[in-house]
């Protein structure tokens, strides 16, 4: 670790905006806000927009629900100058800064219930709803991608109607099919790959949430808005057979 960085690491301060700024390694600076979740995520995304052009050392910006990690080139890093530049950018952006561009809206077709949504009936019953009402409520909301994590392309989506909140399964499934739409607590999300998982599965999409051959590989990005569109089994099979992304985009 360079002397310039070492002098910054012990210090951590929260300013008047409630932003905590601290070095978490010799090349990563972390900004943190409270609270996490729906209230914190928009601020984190606004910081990302304000800091995108920070040069010349900045390599990457990694958002979560309540933090933004800045990754720097250690060979071009002057830690005190970088920290000062970050604080200046945050001051210029303001406390309630918003992203410069309107968010992208991504529509995702979902076949709810049945074999595609083995937990839909139970989630509906726990919410005091019929399964059709569960589908209407879930698909009727618009969601914000707070951040990607857990698995490549997995977006943590905020905006689930409160009455649909459901705990994780007591015992995770060993195999959750790719495209499965789940609920865990007050979040919803789609499994990009087939993997173990403990979210309550209420449906499935034929779209590929992550494809390493695609540019960019992930269908979703932090800051996107998501709408789920209910489809039937026949529509699912047709999309799945004919290249779901192209077929859905050209509908």
> Domains counted in the coordinates: how many?
2
Low-confidence stretches: 1-14
Structural class: alpha+beta
CATH superfamily of the largest domain: Cyclophilin-like
Number of strands: 14
Topology as a string of helices (H) and strands (E): HEEEHEEHEHHEEEEEEEEHH
Tell me which oligomeric state these chains represent: single chain
At the fold tier of CATH, the topology name of the largest domain is: Cyclophilin
| CATH level 1 class label of the largest domain | Mainly Beta
**CATH architecture label of the largest domain:** Beta Barrel
What is the mean pLDDT? Answer: 85
Outline of this structure?
This protein folds into two domains: 3-93, Gyrase A, domain 2 (2-Layer Sandwich); 105-249, Cyclophilin, CATH 2.40.100.10.
Task: Describe, in plain words, how this protein is organized in 3D.
The chain has about 250 residues and is α+β, with helices and mostly antiparallel strands. It has helices spanning about 5, 40-50, 80-95, 120-125, 130-140, 235-240, 245-250, and strands spanning about 15, 20-25, 30, 60-65, 65-70, 105-110, 140-150, 155-160, 175, 180-185, 185-190, 195, 200-205, 225-230. The protein has a seven-stranded mixed sheet with strand order 8-7-14-6-13-10-11. A five-stranded antiparallel sheet has the order 1-2-3-5-4, covered by helices on one side. The protein has a two-stranded antiparallel sheet with strand order 9-12. The protein is elongated and about 55 Å long. The model is unreliable at about 1-15 (pLDDT under 50).
């Amino acid at each position: 670790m360079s002397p310039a960085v070492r002098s910054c690491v012990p210090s951590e301060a929260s300013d008047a905006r409630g932003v905590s700024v601290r070095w978490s390694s010799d090349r990563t600076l972390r900004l943190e806000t409270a609270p996490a979740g729906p209230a914190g995520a928009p601020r984190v995304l606004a910081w990302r927009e304000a800091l995108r052009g920070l040069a010349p050392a900045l390599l990457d910006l990694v958002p979560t629900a309540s933090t933004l990690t800045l990754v720097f080139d250690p060979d071009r890093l002057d830690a005190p100058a970088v920290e000062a530049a970050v604080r200046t950018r945050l001051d210029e952006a303001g406390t309630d800064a918003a992203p410069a561009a309107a968010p992208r809206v991504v529509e995702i077709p979902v076949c709810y219930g049945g074999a595609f949504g083995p937990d839909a009936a139970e989630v509906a019953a726990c919410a005091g709803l019929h399964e059709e009402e569960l589908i209407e409520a879930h698909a009727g909301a618009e969601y914000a991608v707070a951040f990607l994590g857990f698995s490549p392309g997995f977006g943590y989506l905020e905006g689930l109607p409160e009455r649909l909140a459901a705990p994780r399964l007591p015992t995770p499934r060993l195999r959750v099919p790719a495209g499965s739409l789940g609920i865990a607590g007050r979040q919803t999300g789609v499994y990009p790959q087939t993997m173990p998982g403990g979210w309550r599965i209420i449906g499935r999409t034929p779209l590929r949430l992550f494809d390493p051959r695609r540019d960019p590989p992930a269908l979703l990005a932090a800051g996107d808005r998501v709408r789920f569109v209910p489809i039937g089994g026949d529509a699912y099979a047709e999309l799945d057979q004919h290249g779901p992304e192209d077929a859905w985009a050209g509908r």
